[in-house]
Amino acid sequence: MTETYWKQTWRELVEGFSAEPAQGENSLLARWGKKVKSAGYTEHRRKRDRDDPLMRFVIDRVGPEDTILDVGAAIGRWSIPMAKKARSVTALDALPGMLDLLRENARDEGIDNIQTIQGDWSTAEPGIHDYVLASHSAYTSPDIVGYARKIERHARKACYIVLRVPMHDGVVGELSDRIHGNWHDSPNFTVGYNALLEAGITGHVVMEEPVRHWSDTSLDDALLRAKRHLRLSVDDHDEAIMETLQRRLVRRGDEYRWPDGMQSALIWWRPAN
Ligand SMILES: C[S@@+](CC[C@H](N)C(=O)[O-])C[C@H]1O[C@@H](n2cnc3c(N)ncnc32)[C@H](O)[C@@H]1O
What we know:
Layout: H1 5-17, H2 28-49, H3 53-60, E1 67-71, H4 79-83, E2 88-93, H5 96-108, E3 114-118, E4 129-135, H6 144-153, E5 155-164, H7 171-180, H8 189-198, E6 204-207, E7 212-216, H9 219-230, H10 238-248, E8 250-252, E9 255-262, E10 264-269
Helix pairs in contact: 1-8, 2-5, 9-10
């Protein structure tokens, strides 16, 4: 059977987004690992301490007897606050280094009800839990529907997937269209949610707001950011990108503000069992 449009688009974006090998030094997972390790606990705390309405939505529904599976838990941004409310949390991540940091963070907070499992979601068998949450961990999975169905098979009460939302008027979208011939530069909420709808998963959506817009202190920094998102190497398309940045970014004091930014959406649904 041919894949539906959005499911195929998601697969193509994952394959393009992580054109590097799935394993090894330069893989997407390894680069994440390095980034988080270098940002360390301070960054984790900063992110954790900001009010996150999506996290509030999930945690408000957790009771003291509930068990939660956190897919792609990294250093515990979700696992740690969830463990404070739940009976237990199973934190799964492909990268052992992430789980080392998670255990350290949990110890620092006196939390002893998190079990860690190192493994890839495509093959892991962590058992059934009341809730399964997967926040920003779907981007390495080419089959978004298979990824969601597996979440469903492991959840008794509800399934949660968090994905980033692309800005409809974003500069990265404009540049990606111009350079790669596809407005979507990477797997995201728009593509993932539509792929799930096509597969009959009619999830509810909680949208985070407001958007946290990116800003850079110079156009050169903005150029580097754009190239990182577009996965371009040195000197690739610099002129076209600079022209677009000059036209689209807004000068505010000593910063250049992007129309693009960070916004996430939570998709949630009840498993059919
Ligand atoms: C961007 S981080 C998100 C961390 C955390 N969930 C959050 O929202 O702050 C993605 C994490 O998911 C993990 N990950 C990505 N794909 C995975 C997979 N297929 N199986 C297990 N872990 C995965 C990565 O190793 C990384 O630690």
